[in-house]
Amino acid sequence: MNASPSHRPHPAEWTETQSLLPSAERDLPAGRHQFHKEQMMARIHEDLRTPSRTSATSTVAPVKRSNPFLRRAILLPAAALALAGAVAGGLALTGGGADDGRTALATGPALTTRIGAADAKGAPQLLDRISLAAADTSELTPHRGQYIYIASKVADTYIKTVGDKSEAVSSELHSRQVWNSLDGRDGWLIEAGETGDKGITLKGDVPFSGAYNALAKLPTDPAALLRKIYQESDAVRDPEVPRDQAAFVAIGDLLFESYPPAEVGAALYKAAAKIPGVVAVNDAVDATGRHGVAIARENDGERIEWIFDKKTLRFLGERIVVVKATAGNPLKVGTVTHTSAITERAVVDANKQLPGQVS
Q: Is the pLDDT higher at 106 or at 81?
C-alpha cells in the first residue's frame, strides 16, 4: 500500500478523521478487529487459513480450505492481534512483490460514522421478522456442478506505523468476487489490490465447511443449531474471547459469503436471537452507503453490525464500529474498522463465470 493517504471513495455517512495515535504496541481489542491482522496471523497459523482474505504479501497460490468457525475473533487474544497489526501495517507500506500480480490499495484517513441507537428489547422481534424473510423459498436452488457467486465491496481500517508515529488509516473501498463450488472443493477469488486481476484459486483437498452442501446439513432447529455453533467455536476460540461473542461472529460468517438453504438461513437468525447481548440498531450504513437496520453485538468496545434493508429485510452487509473507548484500543469512538456490502449473489454454472454469461 502507499505510505501516504490518497483519494478514496466515500460511502454515505462516513467522515474523514486523521490523527497521530499512541504507540502500536498497545493491545487492540480481542474482538474481530480487521482483516489485515487476521491474515498476518493466518500466515503464521497456516493450517487455519480461510478463503475470506489473502495477506498483502502472500504468493498467488491455492488457499487451504478450513472450518468457517475458525475466525479472527475466536482464535487469537488481544496481544497476538496487536502484534499482527503492527507487522501488517509495515507490510502495507511496501505491498506485494512485482511478480505476484497485486496492485497497491490506496490508504486514507480512518473511516468514521454516526453510531446508531441500540435496543436490546427490539432484537428478538426484528430477528423473527428477518427469519421469516429468509425462509422465502423463491430463490433458486443450486444443482450439482454449479457455483455460488458473491460480489461485494469492502474496506478496512488498521494501525499504520512509520518510525515512531502511528495512525489509523483505511484502505480504499474495493471490489471482491468469490466463487464456491457446492461441495466446497473448488472456487476462485478476485479482490482488487489483493489478488491481482486474474485472482487466485480456492481449490483444495479439504472441502470448505461453509459451502452450500455443508450448510444444507446443518440443523434447522434453532436450539440444536446454536448448540453446534457453540461446540464448534468453543473448540478453537481463545479463552479471552467470550463464547457468546464467538458464536455471534460464527453466525455472521455464515451469512456473508455463503448461500444457505432457506430453512437453514431462517434457523441461523432464530439461533442468533438466543445469544445474550444481541441488540437491534435503528440505523446502520453498509459500505456502499445503503441505510438499514442492524442486528449487533458489542464486545470490548467494538460492535459488529449485520445490516438489513429496512423494507425487505434482505441482508446488505456488515460493519464493525468502535462504540466505546477502552484502555486497549487507540481508535476513536465512531471509527469503522471494517465495512462490507453484498452487491450481487447468484448461482452460476461454472467457476469464474459471471451472472448472465452463457457457459
A: 106
| Helices H / strands E in the chain, number of each | 8, 14
Distance (Å) of CA 114 to CA 129, 192, 221, 291: 25, 27, 36, 12
φ/ψ (deg, to 5) at 234: -60, -30
Q: What is the pLDDT of residues 320-351, one digit of tens each?
A: 999 999 887 889 999 999 999 999 999 999 99
Nearest CA-CA partner of 152 in 358, 352, 339: 339
Rounded CA-CA distance 124/130 in Å is 10
d(CA 176, CA 150): 8
Contacts of 102 (CB under 8 A, 6+ apart): 56, 95, 96, 193, 194, 195, 196
- Mean per-residue pLDDT, 89-95: 34
Amino acid at 161: T
List the grid coordinates of 58. 502472500
Instruction: Identify whether the C-beta of residue 309 lies closer than 8 Å to the C-beta of residue 323.
Output: no
Q: Of 247, 156, 200, 224, whose CA–CA distance to 351 is shortest?
A: 200
Name which of 63, 84, 57 is nearest 72 in CA terms.
84
Q: Give me the chain's average pLDDT, please.
A: 76
Question: How far is the C-alpha of 301 from the C-alpha of 241, rounded, in Å?
Answer: 13
Of the candidates 169, 199, 184, 11, the one whose C-alpha atom is nearest the C-alpha of residue 103 is 199
- Sign, CA dihedral 169-113-31-227, equals negative
pLDDT, tens digit, 9 for 90 and up, residues 225-276: 999 999 988 988 888 889 999 999 999 988 888 899 999 999 999 999 999 9
What is the C-alpha separation between 204 and 226, in angstroms, rounded? 28
| Rounded Cα distance, 182 and 208, in Å | 9
Q: Is 70 exposed, middle or buried (0-12, 13-18, 19+ CB in 10 A)?
A: buried
Instruction: Give the single-character DSSP code of 139.
Output: S
- 8 Å CB contact between 207 and 214: yes
**Contact (CB, 8 A) for 200 and 60:** yes
